[in-house]
Amino acid sequence: MGVTVLQHFPIPENQTGPTTIEWITKKITALGAMQQGQFLVDCETYISVPQLGAQRTVHVLHNSEQPATVFSILETGAKTIPLITDGLFDLLIIKMVNFYQKQIKIESKGPRFEIGDFCVKIGCVTMNSAFKGILVEVEYRPCDIPSMCWNLLREFLQGFLGNVVLNNPPPYLQNRLQEVYTPIDTIQQYLEHFTSYRKSVGTFQNVK
Length: 208
Fold this sequence. Notes:
Elements: E1 3-9, H1 17-30, E2 34-48, E3 56-63, E4 70-76, E5 79-85, H2 88-94, E6 100-102, E7 106-115, E8 118-127, E9 130-140, H3 146-161, H4 171-174, H5 183-199
Antiparallel strand pairs: 1-9, 2-3, 2-6, 2-7, 3-4, 4-5, 7-8, 8-9
């Protein structure tokens, strides 16, 4: 895989989630992108019960691009530990219900497009069926070092999303510009946005 940038897209005034997604879809298809199926990234969060002492949080994420892999992020105090496992981890976490309380599931799903060396995913973010926002994922496949392709990614993103895309890389990528990009980096970006959506007050119009 290449380098991926995850971009939050704000809902314009007097617009809804579905109409905004339709607008973005028209913009990317006008560039020549072809839809190649659907995608899904989901996250289930588990918080340790008080009896275990200091609070521990486990985020369990799945990405349809890696269907056989389970990504987990363990947060304990200021320490964060990423873990990549197979599907058996899902069965393990279910057996820990007496020690961890499950939070509401949040997910981003929608159409997946390909255009040249880019893969674009337009995600409708929902939590308990309530619309929370829009995330646009763009992957540039030929490169795996963020610093070597950020300018190209930025130009491509700004070409169909406009000035909501900043000139500087997102904070997560800024700290890893010279490192080799891996799938867990995409998961970390999704987790940051999902956490932000969870903390947001209220919800937007329901997608149904």
